Amino acid sequence: MLIIWGSRSMDKTLGETQRSYQCQHCNNVNRYRVFRRRNWFTLFWIPIFPFSSKYYITCPICNFGSKLKKQDALDQLQVATEMQQQIQTEAAEAQQAATPEIQQSETDAQ
Ligand SMILES: [Zn+2]
After folding, report:
1. What sign results for the dihedral spanned by CA atoms 43, 48, 53, 56?
2. Distance, CA 94 to ligand 1 centroid (Å)?
3. Residue 52 C-alpha to ligand 1 middle, in angstroms?
4. Which residues share a beta bridge with 6?
5. CA 31 to ligand 1 center in whole angstroms
6. What string of pLDDT tens digits covers the 110 residues of the chain?
7. How far is the CA of 58 from the centre of ligand 1 (A)?
8. Which of these, 80, 58, 83, 82, lies nearest to 68 by C-alpha position?
9. Cα of 14 from ligand 1 centre, angstroms
10. Can you tell me the distance from the alpha carbon of 78 to that of 80, in angstroms, rounded to the nearest whole number?
11. What is the pTM of this model?
12. How far does residue 77's CA lie from ligand 1's centre (Å)?
């Protein structure tokens, strides 16, 4: 019986960095993309299990970038997630603060 096995790499975008970097390749200033590249063991072209993971940070425009340690990659994302939550909280608070004013003016109109 013929068994076909091999490996295949798959990328998963994890997010973008909080701070912007100037790309050394294209000179654009942008938030970098953080992604994980996993190599999968495949059996009949079907991925069965991953056997290695590497983390990268790349320019979203030209894809120039470098490899990161896992912890460094997660740190870059962690800051972004915290900032995003803070922005969402502030937006929700601003919305709540604005709502009574609208109701107030409707009441005045009647
Ligand atoms: Zn670039």
Report:
1. positive
2. 36
3. 26
4. 42
5. 10
6. 899 999 999 999 999 988 888 999 999 999 999 999 999 999 999 999 999 999 999 999 999 999 999 998 888 887 656 666 777 788 888 877 766 555 555 555 55
7. 8
8. 58
9. 19
10. 5
11. 0.64
12. 19
Compute, in angstroms, the gap from residue 86 CA to the centroid of ligand 1.
29
Which residues contact residue 56 at a Cβ distance below 8 angstroms, ignoring those fewer than 6 apart? 34, 35, 36, 37, 65, 66, 67, 68, 73
Residue 98, token pair as written in the block: 């604005």
How close is the Cα of 105 to the center of ligand 1, in Å?
Answer: 50
Cα 63 to averaged position of ligand 1 atoms, centre (Å): 6
If you search the block for the tokens 């299990």, which residue do you land on?
49
- Six-digit token string for 85: 């939550």
| Annotated domain spans of the chain | 5-98
For residue 97, what pLDDT is reported? 72
Cα 97 to ligand 1 centroid, rounded to whole Å = 41
